[in-house]
Design goal:
Helix content: 40-55%
Largest sheet: 3 strands, antiparallel
Oligomer: single chain
Strand content: 5-15%
Distance between the termini: 28 Å
Order of helices and strands: HEEEHHHHHH
Strand order of the largest sheet: 1-2-3
Structural class: mainly alpha
Shape: globular
Number of strands: 3
Number of helices: 7
């Protein structure tokens, strides 16, 4: 599944409800963008401990640094949602937040959620831990994701998409998913090509 997730643009989890723009709130975290981004990374590393690896994806509408993490000091995009994806004990996990008006606040909300779940891991019983994480399992499965072109191309189900928009997104994503590119693969490119074919059939 990680091969189908883009750090940029935002890949919101399929089926996860969005917060209406007028319902977003101002948070009181008082956390800089860079610190919030780094706190997500730290909390995921602490959570995974000996299971740690490098598959964390922080997906936003913020352009990326060379290490594929969101770059600080950019203006707030129209869509301030944040979705993170990583593997935990061989399960694909997804945490997403768009409740707050700023990207850094949504990132900090995710970091605090993971920190709270780490508390469950430390002080709760095993069944509490499993129950707590069930709601954050990344859904749908990779097979389901790969069959829907909007999900593969990181479009929200409510986005107005025409053929020109889809083609532009296809070109953007192919530059990172191509097997000759760092982080790309044959599977990711094949899924993108199939999604582009499906998009052309639907939008033509």
């Amino acid at each position: 599944m990680a091969a189908l997730i883009e750090a940029y643009p935002l890949c919101w989890p399929v089926g996860r409800k969005r917060t209406d723009r007028w319902s977003r709130e101002n948070a009181r975290f008082e956390m800089s963008f860079a610190r919030a981004r780094d706190e997500i990374t730290r909390q995921v590393q602490l959570l995974r401990g000996r299971y740690s690896n490098t598959d964390l994806v922080i997906s936003t509408n913020i352009a990326l640094r060379r290490d594929s993490l969101p770059l600080a000091a950019q203006r707030q995009p129209d869509d301030v949602g944040v979705a993170i994806y990583f593997t935990y004990k061989k399960r694909q996990m997804c945490f997403a937040c768009d409740r707050w008006n700023k990207i850094e606040d949504n990132m900090q909300a995710i970091a605090k959620t993971i920190d709270a779940l780490r508390g469950v891991a430390r002080w709760g019983t095993g069944d509490m831990m499993e129950a707590a994480f069930t709601g954050f399992t990344a859904l749908p499965t990779p097979e389901t994701v790969s069959t829907h072109w909007r999900a593969v191309m990181c479009f929200h189900p409510d986005d107005a998409v025409n053929l020109e928009t889809a083609q532009r997104r296809y070109r953007e994503l192919s530059s990172s998913r191509h097997p000759d590119k760092s982080g790309g693969s044959h599977d990711a490119m094949a899924a993108l090509n199939l999604a582009w074919e499906q998009a052309q059939e639907e939008l033509a």
